[in-house]
Design goal:
Blueprint (H helix, E strand, L loop, with lengths): L15 E2 L2 E4 L2 E2 H8 L4 E4 L1 H14 L5 E5 L6 H8 L4 E4 L2 H8 L8 E3 L6 H10 L2 E4 L2 H14 L4 E7 L7 E4 L9 E2 L3 H11 L2 E7 L2 E4 L2 H19 L8 E3 L17 H18 L4 E6 L1 H4 L3 E13 L2 E6 L23 E3 L8 E7 L8 E9 L6 E4 L21 E4 L1
Parallel strand pairs: 4-22, 5-6, 5-15, 6-7, 7-8, 8-9, 9-11, 9-12, 12-14, 14-15, 17-19
Antiparallel strand pairs: 1-2, 2-3, 4-16, 10-13, 16-17, 16-21, 18-21, 19-20
The chain binds pyridoxal-5'-phosphate.
């Protein structure tokens, strides 16, 4: 028996044939046989390609797109992405190595994040990538290491702006922050950059993550450009790189709607003439993680046991928060909400029941879906968590309780 398609948009983004979800053009049941085990993450290559095409369609041509690879550092994903985007942003030397394994030229790779260690700075300077400096102390270390290596480091200043990105899921700019240099301290730092002989590239702004309000993002873009123009007055050389951040969100929960990229693109088109006039050498960069990969990924686990307890049904699975912390609600959610979930081999079944999906860990936090209406399951059915292509496996405590790690595939 099959019913109607589910309401949540996330549940309709992959085709369904004969009641079975199709990932990368293949029935999920076939993919499970091919992989040979559950749980796993599967990322749909074509969906990633389409997503970058959507961004290219709506954003002005002049804007460079960078992939913030911490969202999904799987080497195959980063390799695929390197053919689609203009640069890669890394957050560690480990990520830098993965990025440099791709065709991306080193000068299109940038490195952000507080607490960069001396050996990380040294590796990055030797590689010739751009360092987004998070503090004055980091600037001093970079200058010293550059001298030792006899290389002129490429640097940009990560600015903690004097405004906030409104309605972000996670704020990372404005007010007091561990990220970047407070904008009022930047002019003095720019003088030092000149004195230290660093190769000044420009500015980096990143104000927050998971924003679904285009008007907030547009306002942030406008203020970022104004601040960039103002700070450039003290720069030791013309600004060549202006990274205005990202923060584009995706809909996870009922009632959330996809971001209006066309509106953001229209606003950038309106803002570009002024920035081109005032900072004629500046390459404008938008860096995105989640938006590029999240909707292309699913997490799949299997029902091991159907457990009844005082009137409630628990689907005990071989997956859990140790693989997918975000779906358990413990990665930045203020109030726990269910990710979109389906039963991959019974997507359209009209027989439904309300269940909680749990994992094997000895904690009540190990909850992948709480009291959710899903197609009625049997043992071995496949639980699929959608919107799992970003901040999934790499953002999860895989060592907790010593279970095996899931497999990742790019299909
Ligand atoms: C995490 C991060 C990103 C990516 O954020 P998303 O919300 O995933 O797009 C971009 N830039 C910096 C500096 C980051 O730390």
């Amino acid at each position: 028996m099959t019913g109607s398609r589910p309401k949540h948009a996330a549940l309709t983004q992959f085709p369904v044939i004969e009641n079975c979800l199709q990932i990368g053009g293949m029935p999920l049941t076939r993919l499970v046989q091919q992989i040979g085990q559950t749980p796993f993450y599967a990322y749909d290559r074509e969906k990633i390609t389409e997503r970058i095409a959507l961004l290219r369609k709506h954003l002005p041509e002049e804007i460079h797109l960078h992939y913030a690879m911490k969202a999904n550092p799987m080497p195959a994903v980063v390799q695929h992405m390197a053919h689609l985007v203009d640069g890669i942003d890394v957050a560690s030397v480990g990520e830098m190595r993965t990025a440099l394994d791709t065709i991306m030229p080193a000068n299109r790779v940038s490195f952000a994040g507080p607490g960069k260690k001396a050996y990380e700075l040294s590796c990055a300077i030797a590689a010739g990538i751009v360092l987004n400096m998070e503090s004055e102390q980091e600037m001093e270390s970079i200058a010293e290491i550059g001298k030792d290596l006899n290389i002129r480091p490429n640097v940009a200043v990560r600015v903690n702006p004097n405004f906030e990105l409104k309605s972000s899921g996670m704020k990372m700019g404005g007010g007091a922050q561990q990220f970047g240099v407070d904008s009022e301290r930047v002019p003095e730092m720019l003088i030092q950059i000149g004195k230290l002989g660093l190769n000044f590239m420009g500015f980096h702004f990143f104000s927050g993550s998971q924003n679904l309000r285009h008007t907030s993002i547009q306002e942030a873009h406008e203020k970022t450009f104004q601040l960039g123009i103002q700070l450039a007055q003290n720069a030791p050389s013309p600004v060549k790189y202006l990274n205005i951040g990202g923060g584009f969100g995706i809909p996870y929960f009922p009632g959330e709607r996809a971001l209006d990229i066309a509106a953001i693109g229209g606003n950038l088109t309106r803002l570009l003439p002024e920035i081109k006039e005032k900072l004629p050498e500046a390459q404008i960069v938008i860096e995105l993680g989640r938006y590029m990969v999240a909707e292309a990924g699913v997490y799949v686990c299997r029902v091991l046991e159907r457990k009844q307890s005082r009137g409630q049904v628990f689907l005990v699975t071989d997956g859990g928060l140790h693989h997918h912390l975000a779906a358990s609600g413990n990665f930045g959610q203020v109030i726990r909400k269910n990710f979109p979930v389906t039963i991959g081999n019974k997507v359209l079944s009209s027989e439904k029941e309300t269940v909680s999906v749990v994992g094997p860990l000895c904690t009540p936090l190990d909850l992948l879906a709480a009291k959710m209406e899903l197609p009625k399951t049997e043992i071995n059915d496949l639980v699929v968590i959608m919107q799992s292509g970003a901040y999934g496996l790499s953002a999860s405590p895989t060592a907790f309780l010593g279970h095996t790690k899931p497999i990742e595939r790019l299909i």
